[in-house]
């Protein structure tokens, strides 16, 4: 197996993980959680989103969160921004990196951003330009890169077109979002085979949700194809508001377990991550659904017979 | 990706899945569950175990289960047998195939079978010989092929030695058990790289537990290395008696989802399998922990945002 020696984990729990949580987490709860994440060895935390509070009430305190967290040196604290207004708020709050986002699926883009794909480009272009002028790095997100809840299977060509436009705008990294968590390794391979001739593997990140339990298998395939950056969320957070099941992001702690056992270094301390997961578990008043957390709670004990 | 076109799924839920369940399932509950499994397109079901009831009270009714199920033509109904006494019972009950079992780890073998590895060989040899004389095919199980709860990492060489002895006895297929569910794809690759020069890939099956959520990733690696037979248990059954978490076998329905999405045929109808899972869920009075069952219960709904 040809595998990278080092992998970068980008923790998206405080944003992608929390955004659908019904239980409103108070600002100080988010801040102490992010502070506990900051001492795990992570080099990147997506702390919040500067979308209009009407859309994501849970993250309405983005500016306060960014201002109150204790910054670790060398750690990038990022936030999502949908437009110039969001960018202004993020810059004012002292964000290190901003993320712009859109979808590879026309229907999902319209449903999520309320604009066509073509009408989204100029908005993001403006944000990327202004962010760059402010000296910030910019991450692009493309969602529904393999399947869309409305359109079904998304051809890799559609993902390539949107990705090219984002790189032309000047983004520094592109995160490819398997938003609904239905992908299998053959599809990941097909997508990356289409993208890698056009983009440097080092400028791409994979962002898997785990609805069907295939996220780790998809990550292994991505690793074999040269991808070295993965998004994940502590505790597998990120499911639907009404979903008890495991439809969230791939769990950071389960990903760390696998990578470390495979001899791949992440610089992240799994024990420290589990402590941080216990903290947010308490705050959210619900058991986190990762395998590592189940084992920690004594629910997933190894069977000796 | 080089993948097989067809894969055989061997359902071990009624044996490996149930054996640690606290809730005693009445014989008729097992029989109607197995009957529902028989019409899913599965070609192999491990229905019970003829070990002494003292060790696994849940499976004390093995003979009655075998006698009462409605046999589908072409379907192999198998059972575990530890010794000649167990074999007699299994043959008398009309088993199609018997499985003998031992461990690649000395400590696990002693704990599980109460004998050293060397003292186990003659017992199994006798069983294989008599089963063959009775015209039955024999499956061999080697457990703890990657890690042992007592000895830790198990060198592939140890697995090879035990496997060779079992094939010399005349077993028709060998199932390699990753008993405690901690393996990662690099370890699976290392194991198979060591075994495949000695054994035909078609005579090997992989048996993964999913404690760390890595089973599907391990199966993909096994597929890429030419393995075409996999053991799984409906609903991911097979955890510890006191474990609420997902430490059981890889779930048949999650495996089927992935294989089918990868374009690999199994001959098994996922919808029929889910109906069978709902039946045993009712009988066990607890929600099964597979992703497909979570989705069916509306817990794992895809998130559209």
Automatic annotation (TrEMBL), chains A, B:
Gene3D superfamilies: Aldolase class I. Keywords: Lyase, Metal-binding. The lineage of its organism: Bacteria, Bacillati, Bacillota, Bacilli, Bacillales. One of its GO terms (biological process) is ketone body biosynthetic process. The keyword Metal-binding applies. InterPro entries: Aldolase_TIM (IPR013785), HMGL (IPR043594), PYR_CT (IPR000891). NCBIfam families: PRK05692.1 (NF004283). Transmembrane segments: none annotated. It comes from the Bacteria. It comes from Mesobacillus campisalis. Coiled coil: none annotated. This is Hydroxymethylglutaryl-CoA lyase. GO terms for molecular function: hydroxymethylglutaryl-CoA lyase activity; metal ion binding. Residues 7-274 form the Pyruvate carboxyltransferase domain. Belongs to the HMG-CoA lyase family.
């Amino acid at each position: 197996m040809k595998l990278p020696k080092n992998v970068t984990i980008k923790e998206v729990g405080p944003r992608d993980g929390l955004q659908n949580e019904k239980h409103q987490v108070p600002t100080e709860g988010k801040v102490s959680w992010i502070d506990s994440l900051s001492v795990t060895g992570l080099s990147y935390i997506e702390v919040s989103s500067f979308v209009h509070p009407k859309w994501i009430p849970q993250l309405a305190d983005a500016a306060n969160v960014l201002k109150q967290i204790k910054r670790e040196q060398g750690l990038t604290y990022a936030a999502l921004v949908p437009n110039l207004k969001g960018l202004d708020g993020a810059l004012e709050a002292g964000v290190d990196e901003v993320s712009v986002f859109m979808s590879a699926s026309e229907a999902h883009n319209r449903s999520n951003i309320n604009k066509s794909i073509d009408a989204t480009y100029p908005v993001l272009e403006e944000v990327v330009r202004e962010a760059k002028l402010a000296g910030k790095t910019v991450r692009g997100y493309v969602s529904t890169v393999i399947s869309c809840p409305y359109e079904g299977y998304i051809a890799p060509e559609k993902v390539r077109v949107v990705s090219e436009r984002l790189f032309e705008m000047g983004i520094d990294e592109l995160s490819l979002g398997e938003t609904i968590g239905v992908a299998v390794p053959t599809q990941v391979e097909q997508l990356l085979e289409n993208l890698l001739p056009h983009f440097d593997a080092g400028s791409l990140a994979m962002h898997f949700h785990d609805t069907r339990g295939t996220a780790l298998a998809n990550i292994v395939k991505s690793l074999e194809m040269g991808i070295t950056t993965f998004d994940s969320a502590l505790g597998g957070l990120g499911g639907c508001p009404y979903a008890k099941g495991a439809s969230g992001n791939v769990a950071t702690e389960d990903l760390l377990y696998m990578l470390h056992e495979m001899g791949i270094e992440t610089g992240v301390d799994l024990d420290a991550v589990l402590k941080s997961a216990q903290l947010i578990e308490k705050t959210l008043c619900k058991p986190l659904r990762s395998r590592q957390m189940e084992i920690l709670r004594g629910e997933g004990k190894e069977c000796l017979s």
